[in-house]
């Protein structure tokens, strides 16, 4: 008998991945007309996965990669052209890479491992050469339900339908979180393998009970009033990240171009960190996502930290992800140490390393402003909100530090202190351990702050 797990596998493995490769053009080399003086470099990215913008959406809009290649072209007499290919998830990027049709791609940690495994199987090995954005606790993934849903915890998902993208970082969070809650992700939950946009529509229509997805879908749905957070991925306290992968053959034959890409990525990262509001507006314009949602993740105190460095914590997390994918039958094994290659980044980027990001703080973005205000406490933020024309107010979860929209958070009044939480379950847990503390709504929190 075919198990549910095996019925989902055809959406990811070799046969389907290869079938996707007919849709796009070739990778680096002479153009289709055979002109050896023109070289096309093909980059696969995910515009709406805004944790990858420094290697995708933002990098493309800034034109830094093209600038680096133009400088190279003046030296060697070659015209370089970049072809950007946009996808919803990492799986089709892997398909194109293993067919030799994409040179450089960006995707999440779980898809990166599948990328490594497929590359080895199909004799088109790939290498992880940089990180785009990360969260050391796992806050980039969230499980959400419909507003007004009776579901209050992951335990309530027994017997329910949950949409996710199998093999994605969000799927990994869902599996681990369910297991921690004592729920069997294969037997107790009906998991539907859907692209993020399909899952969002399924949640809105009521055809699924919950959605587990990666940045920026949970924040987008919450901002639009279409979802309520059920589980904050940071509760796992396991790092999650997105990174840049390259075909090994390309990295060897076109090492200079890879260096140009990594330098351009670092420049885009510098730009994002120096001009977070402008960067959020740029990404929003390119993707159609609300700028307020982009800033939730990519802002100065956002959920994501942008840094190309292959940090030891992230590589350790990648190794810890392998057993999860093996248990799901999505990979046989992955040689993480052989997949990770820090040499190109060290060779290409000589800029000092970024300092470790400080803990998130409450932040206010007023309409018409091109800067934000940062506060030391939730109470100060709420006082500043009253009587102003707010574009977005952000507040960190009191337990996990995950930043969320203040008006979508669950608040607790604990004496004179006000604390915010991404989920109701966390708020109730916090309040339950403190005599006199109580869960309140956003309107009451505003009143108490004043």
TrEMBL record:
Domain of life assignment: Bacteria
UniProt-listed InterPro entries: SsuA/THI5
Pfam families assigned: NMT1
Signal peptide (residue range): 1-30
Keywords: Signal
Family matches, as SUPFAM superfamilies: NosL/MerB-like (SSF160387), Periplasmic binding protein-like II (SSF53850)
Keyword Signal among record annotations: yes
Domain SsuA/THI5-like: 88-279
Name of the molecule in the record: ABC transporter substrate-binding protein
UniProt source species: Streptomyces roseoviridis
